[in-house]
Amino acid sequence: MQIAPPDFDRMFGALADPTRRDIVRRAVDSEEGVAELASHYPMSFAAVQKHIAILERAGLVTKERIGRRKIVRTNPEGLRVVRRLLDRYEELWRGRIDRMTTLVADPPDRKETDQ
Amino acid sequence: MQIAPPDFDRMFGALADPTRRDIVRRAVDSEEGVAELASHYPMSFAAVQKHIAILERAGLVTKERIGRRKIVRTNPEGLRVVRRLLDRYEELWRGRIDRMTTLVADPPDRKETDQ
DNA sequence: GCTCCATACAACCATATGGTTGTACAAATG
DNA sequence: CATTTGTACAACCATATGGTTGTATGGAGC
User: Fold this and answer.
1) Which residue is nearest to nucleotide D25 (CA to C1')?
2) The domain spanning residue A22 has which CATH number?
3) Which of A78, A56, A70, A61 is nearest to A26 (CA)?
4) Is B95 within the bounds of a domain?
5) Among A69, A74, A90, B35, which has the highest number of CB atoms less than 10 A from its own CB?
6) A9, A15, A23, A87: best mutation site toward chain B, by most B Cβ within 10 Å?
7) Of A65, A68, A80, A67, which is closest to residue A24 (Cα–Cα)?
């Protein structure tokens, strides 16, 4: 079996909705089924179900069948994948700063005429 | 003047597109104007311009007028705001683990009948 | 097996999104 | 001042998204 590469479009897209972020937050440490989760929001059961499906396809939550319910749980690894991308951007930023600092401290080809 | 509260819908929404993420990546350490950025992508200038406007409204890039160009730069503070939200979720997760561990190590009200 | 409860999914609708082309504005250059 | 270059924005179109209601499936309890 192949491990799926992270789908950042789906991941960020899933997080770009307040209801879905709230589901992620709740499902971190709750053991609620779809219906119980749905009861927190002012929309139909089916709407919440769709939100959960979107989070699931993005790899941000998992569902486990227990009896006739399906427990929704936040997938911490999914969150970490997203975070790591942002870390990479910040690393690029640090790299830029470092290069600028190096340039100032140790100019490779400086002439007197340089500003 | 009031500092705007972070708009996570816009932020995650902005990052949910490969072109926009690539613009963020490039603009971390480039000094390109809108047209120069646009030249990297197989779409019209106006389309890229819209992408940049979306990133700008989300607080993920800034534009600085230089001559007749506008330099697009990634805003590292915007990225950090997003990252911090993910950090908070991970903290919740750690909290859950801690509580579970505590429960096992030091059950507050244990009876022999407990599983 | 029938019924109830939790979940899933299809069909539909309004609006948002991502692309296009065309036009207008702003600053450097002749 | 006219031209060129870079940016902004409006109008338009196709498709995606977020919501609805209705129907179907699957497991627990009688």
Assistant:
1) A68
2) 1.10.10.10
3) A61
4) no
5) A74
6) A15
7) A80
